Amino acid sequence: MRERGIAVSIILTIVTCGIYGIYWFICITNETEAESGDTSLSSGGVAFLLTILTCGIYGIYWAYKMGKLLMIAQEKHGLRSEDNSVVFLLLQLIGFGIINYALIQNGLNEIARTKSA
User: Fold this and answer.
1) Within 10 Å of residue 86's Cβ, how many Cβ atoms?
2) For 79-108, how does the pLDDT look when each residue is reduced to its tens digit (9 = 90+)?
3) Which of 22, 30, 64, 100 has the most neighbouring CB atoms within 10 Å?
4) Which residue, 18, 21, 16, 30, is CA-closest to 108?
């Protein structure tokens, strides 16, 4: 796992008309699962396909579950953690999923810095 620049990732998502966002979604899903040790959520690729096939409904579940998994991953690495699953759920419901990506990436970046120290 490596740190990703959040601003660069958002800009790349916009510039590539969302294509980088798909890659980012898959990466943060896989990395959060790996760091938390919980594989109850589908892999990033499957989660993306399920989100498309269910017209976004799976994406709502994904956002909630990612909040829980990120909290577990942060606790595992001795970082301050809080349960943001409801915040992620609400952001997803009102169409601000990219903010979820940024918040998840921020948590993963903290874990990466802890592992490299």
Assistant:
1) 11
2) 999 999 999 999 999 999 999 999 999 999
3) 100
4) 30
**What are the residue boundaries of the structural domains of the chain, listed by start?**
6-112
Q: Are 105 and 28 a contacting pair, CB within 8 Å? A: yes
Phi-psi region of 78 (alpha: psi -120 to 50; beta: other; left: phi over 0): left
What does the pLDDT read at residue 52? Answer: 97
Tokens at 21, concatenated: 């966002």
Q: How far apart are the first and last CA of the chain?
A: 14
CA distance 6 to 4: 6
Asked if residues 41 and 69 have their Cβ atoms less than 8 Å apart, the reply is yes
